[in-house]
Design brief:
Radius of gyration: 19 Å
Number of helices: 8
Oligomer: single chain
Structural class: alpha+beta
Shape: globular
Distance between the termini: 36 Å
Largest sheet: 4 strands, mixed
Strand order of the largest sheet: 9-1-11-10
Helix content: 10-25%
């Protein structure tokens, strides 16, 4: 009975939407975020991605802090567009993963008498997939992939159904309690369309994050792709992520 009520409530909410919002899910996204782009910006000339050099990440948390400040993300520790995880691999094969408050304040030294084989930090964020499951499940087309390869959410159309949050295999989305709409990393779209770097990339003290064009040979990201053996998270899902990791340990999930 609860399921039937939830479906009825969802359908009623859908019927209350403007016709343009319903058409959006059929016809594709309208020209959105135009006010965030610099004059003369041509989305068709760009295709963005990010590389993360795991061996360079020191777990300082500056990326998570900068993201919250730049994008007005709630300060509560469970709302993040990007966060950092620490992996500790013990001699007996056990692996522990922690991310205290998303790693925003760094990490305290691990206290254990057990033999530690290795430990490392892994930044996480929306993977801006080429085949994004979040886009496929959105009933009103509020979640879409832009021409320049960034997966975005139009909050004017989002109805807060949470389908995209459930569909994301990387746990990179959350529902903003202020707007009751889905939120996530946008590669700082308001910055990159003006020629700036994402906030997390700009503040990284070790240049663990590399942002750039996937198709331009002169891009720093393309250089990383040429010089490193890159992997993606959960490749078996065929989501074709555009966040690429170098020195990715097999224990990362």
């Amino acid at each position: 009975m609860a399921t039937t009520c939830e479906r009825r409530e969802f359908l009623l909410k859908l019927l209350q939407l403007p016709c343009s919002a319903v058409l959006l899910s059929v016809c594709g996204p309208l020209p959105l975020f135009a006010d965030e782009k610099k004059e003369g910006y041509d989305a068709g000339e760009h295709y963005y991605g990010m590389g993360i050099q795991v061996d360079k990440c020191i777990g300082c948390g500056r990326c998570a802090e900068a993201c919250k400040a730049e994008n007005d993300v709630l300060r509560q520790p469970y709302y993040f567009r990007t966060w950092v995880e620490r992996y500790v691999v013990y001699g007996d094969g056990e692996v522990t993963v922690d991310s205290p408050e998303g790693g925003i304040h760094g990490f305290s030294a691990a206290q254990s008498d057990r033999e530690v084989l290795r430990s490392f930090f892994v930044p996480k964020l929306c993977n801006h997939c080429d085949n994004p499951p979040c886009v496929q499940v959105c009933p009103v087309g509020a979640t879409f992939k832009s021409v320049d390869g960034v997966v975005l959410v139009d909050k004017d159309y989002c109805i807060g159904c949470r389908y995209c949050i459930q569909a994301c295999p990387y746990g990179a989305r959350y529902l903003d309690p202020r707007t009751k709409t889905a939120d996530k990393c946008t590669f700082c779209y308001h910055r990159i369309t003006k020629g700036l770097l994402p906030a997390c990339v700009e503040v990284c003290p070790t240049q663990a994050r590399v942002f750039g064009e996937l198709k331009a040979m002169s891009s720093p990201l393309r250089r990383l792709m040429r010089m490193s053996n890159l992997q993606v998270l959960k490749p078996y899902l065929n989501t074709e992520p555009k966040v690429l990791y170098s020195e990715l340990d097999r224990e990362v999930r």
